[in-house]
Amino acid sequence: MEAPQLLKIANEFGSPVYVYDAAKIESQYQRLTQAFSKVEKLQINYAVKALSNVSILKLFKNLNSGLDTVSIQEVLLGLHAGFSPDKIMYTPNGVSMSEIEEVATLGVQINIDNLSILEQFGAKHPHTPVCIRINPHVMAGGNSNISVGHIDSKFGISIHQLPHILRIVENTGMHINGIHMHTGSDILDIEVFLYASEILFETAKHFKTLDFIDFGSGFKVPYKKGDIETNVEELGRKLTKRFLAFEKEYGRELTLVFEPGKFLVSEAGYFLAKVNVVKQTTSTVFAGIDSGFNHLIRPMLYGSEHYIENISNPKGKERFYSVVGYICETDTFATNRRISEIKEGDILAFRNAGAYCFSMSSNYNSRYKPAEVLWKDEKAYLIRQHEVFEDLLNNQLPIEL
Among 3.40.930.10, 3.40.1190.20, 3.90.70.10, 2.40.37.10, what is the CATH number of 269-387? Predict the structure, then answer.
């Protein structure tokens, strides 16, 4: 999307506002499917946690995507958006047995990541197909908070506990129809990912009734000019060759599953905010905007870098600014960043705001959550309204004091 389109949206719907480019989502989806086009049975499950607006889910449904969910609420959103249960994978972590059983009644694919729940579920529901999440003990991710396949991770069943898994499966007679792993987000080294895949292939040999192998995702997208990204085309060539060879060795056709979130929606997203104040101190020029980490927490939480452009003055002379929010504590989006000269009232656009941005927003400082807009076929569609004061009171129960 270009600056004039974004400015028009900011003027029409106000700020702050999230904007999602449908064409970019579609092109990313097609890029991934094309990279694995030689795989006969390929299933892409969009990771709902990245961006869960129902209109976005419907967009993925139209692309023939499935869903990767981590809570019963995400499952229900998927069903509400029109997905059939067999197109939804449920991969919880640390949830109650009752939630897993409730999800199972909905007919979605269950994915279990610990021995205790595996044994309990297998004993009570031996005929319900179950996928097992393996922890390959492979570190692959750009930040310790989003690397989930290493030895100290809370996710998955350790590959070294495979004998325990096999004993549970034999004792309960449960039906294992899938094997899964997820090493973490921001995969930088394809060879590390392929190494982890070999561990998954070796594990799969122990289960004779598999329908699919799920390789997770975590493909890195560029967050700034010149940034590196996962070469999905190279990964497609190398993993496809190995997957097809394994199918022959296994003796039956399998579905290759990925569950990308960030890869599909990050670059499609823009966060637009208005500059409330330009404040010069003895050493810094602050651009204070009408938002804060209550709307976009990733820079404060992960130290992530979002490219920021002054779309009100895109060709202006660049100066150094620290872009900060209005939350009553340290609330910094960027420090000493080169941005076209900023004046009060200008609109700043944060790029790569599609993944883990609105979905992690809050009402901290009793601020309202922003609107969301979908840009599709050269038209802007409001897909979530700006919150108002009544939204803050919703579900509160005042008492007489």
Answer: 2.40.37.10
